[in-house]
Amino acid sequence: MVEKKYEDKIGDYAIVPVPKYEQRGFLSNTWISAGWIINVIGLYAGAAIATGLTVKSMILVSFGGMAIVAVYAAAAGAISGKYHTTAAVTLRQAFGRHGAILTGGIIALVLGLGWYAFITSFLAMSVNAVLPGYWFTSIQVATVWGGLLMMVTAVIGYKGLGVLSFIAVPLVLLLVLFGFHATVLEAGSLGRIFEMIAPGEPISTGFAISAIAGSVMAGAIAIGDITRYAKSAKAGAAAAGIGYGLGGTIALVLGGMIAVVTQVEMTGVIPQIPGAMKVLGLGSGGLAILILAQWTTNDNNLYSGALGLVNIIPISKRAITIILGLLGTGIATFGIFGSFMDFMGGLGVLLPPIGGVLLCDYWIVHRLFLKKEYNFGPGTICAKLNIAALIAFVFGVIAAYRMTATGIPAMNGIITSFVLYAVIAIICEKANIKYKIGEYKISEVGY
Questions:
Q1: CB–CB of 415/360 below 8 Å?
Q2: What does the pLDDT look like over 161-203, one tens digit per residue?
Q3: Contact 52, 206 (CB under 8 A)
Q4: pTM
Q5: CB-facing half-sphere around the CA of 436: CA atoms within 13 A
Q6: Cα separation, 400 vs 445, whole angstroms
Q7: Domain 20-341, what architecture?
Q8: Beta-carbon neighbour count of residue 327 at 10 Å?
Q9: How far apart (Å, rounded) are the C-alpha atoms in residues 92 and 331?
Q10: Where are the domains of the chain?
């Protein structure tokens, strides 16, 4: 069967399926997925969680939180791996064309502006802590050059992400292993680490798992932006689950151990990881971790943010990337990292319900109940708006927000939106009740 070729006017196959000749192997997808999640935010999150838990509890919640994310990432990665479409384009089938503008826009702004600005702030703060006293390491100057630096590979696109990840991820992993070794030496033995009591006020296991899941769920929701280059659904699922899940766990556990062993001090709610690295004698290696890890993450955030907005605004992907990058860098100059834990909790409430609807619509309603597949590409038809999806999403957000004392908010949101959408959609299908409004035909260029 001859593959249908689509005209890629926007660039990087942002709104049309990735053609077969451009698809990449399993290692490429896994490496980029790992680069996205092996980041300093993971170290900070692990350290922040560790300040309110025992070491054993910190390790358990790290595995628990990332297991939740890995399962979702694999399920979402499989969809884009099969159809080779971005996360924002995939949402067209679940939410309808106009609903995907709303939900895809939320994800795009959270990643391309929110997370991009946060990590740019972290980079500047970290560089200043490790190398204070120089003009180019002042927080404002480092914010500017850091933001522009991380924007470069995102502007290039998937190939840029791949080249950076293949260089940075092995180096970061080596430095992570060295950091783990230094942590054990500082403590005296691995056994002593488990006996140590973490500093800080106690927090609940449920909050810790939710904060972990919430802190990385944004990337997991958009993991299809990477796995769309996979050669099959299985390859996409494996790359997302392994790369994202295992990489995130490594970062969380190491960050937590560093915090406990060095009894890291806090600035507000921000663990002083750079200072802890200096205590462990990481020096220039620690600075390399801080820069490379944040770079491989933040270029992905900006990349996905641009892909999300390209789904809404018919402008070239590179132009959107530059605009978002400059805006995010500008926002970062205001030092927004002070609300880090609150921001993670907010992500745990707002974003997971979008994923719950998408997974239910594809795996349950379409595959299991209707025995139908998704259709993408110019000339295909989707609904203008899926009312059931929007209702499920809204109630998922409410459930996550209102039920924070019961279970894990991120999971409350996913489960509520997943179950509610399944109930509404299946009942409507059986009763022949229309819950999808209008029809939208995708144009020849993908809009």
A1: no
A2: 888 888 877 877 776 677 677 767 766 777 776 766 656 666 7
A3: no
A4: 0.87
A5: 18
A6: 38
A7: Orthogonal Bundle (1.10)
A8: 16
A9: 30
A10: 20-341
